[in-house]
Write a structure and sequence with these properties.
- By secondary structure, the protein is an alpha+beta fold.
- It has one domain.
- Helices cover 32% and strands 34% of the residues.
- It has three helices and four strands, in the order βββααβα.
- A four-stranded mixed β-sheet has the order 3-2-1-4.
- Strand 1 and strand 2 form a beta hairpin.
- The longest helix is centred in the C-terminal third of the chain and has 15 residues.
- It is globular.
C-alpha cells in the first residue's frame, strides 16, 4: 500500500509550500513563490496526481489520507483505466 498523509501548508517570507509524506517514507513538496501562497490548500489533490503511477508500478493500493476534488478523483479513475489499457 502506498499511503500519502501528513499534509501541511507552510509559509515563509519568500515562499509557501504544501508538504506530504508518502509512506516508505518519502517526503514530497509543492512549493510556490510567496506571492502565490493563496493558491495552495491543504488538500490531497496534488498528491492524487503525483502518486498513482508509482503505486501502480509497484502493485500497491494508493491511499490519499486527505480530501481530494471529486472531479479530480473521477478523472484519475479514468486515467487508471487508460493506463491499464
Amino acid at each position: 500500500m502506498l499511503v500519502v498523509d501528513r499534509m501541511a501548508l507552510r509559509e515563509r517570507r519568500d515562499a509557501a509550500s504544501l508538504d506530504a509524506r508518502v509512506r516508505e517514507p518519502v517526503e514530497l513538496r509543492v512549493e510556490v513563490p510567496a506571492a502565490h501562497a493563496d493558491a495552495l490548500q491543504p488538500s490531497g489533490s496534488p498528491w492524487l496526481v503525483a502518486t498513482p503511477l508509482p503505486a501502480m508500478m509497484s502493485g500497491r493500493t494508493l491511499v490519499v489520507d486527505a480530501p481530494v476534488s471529486p472531479a479530480l478523483a473521477r478523472g484519475m479513475e479514468r486515467e487508471q483505466e487508460v493506463l491499464i489499457g
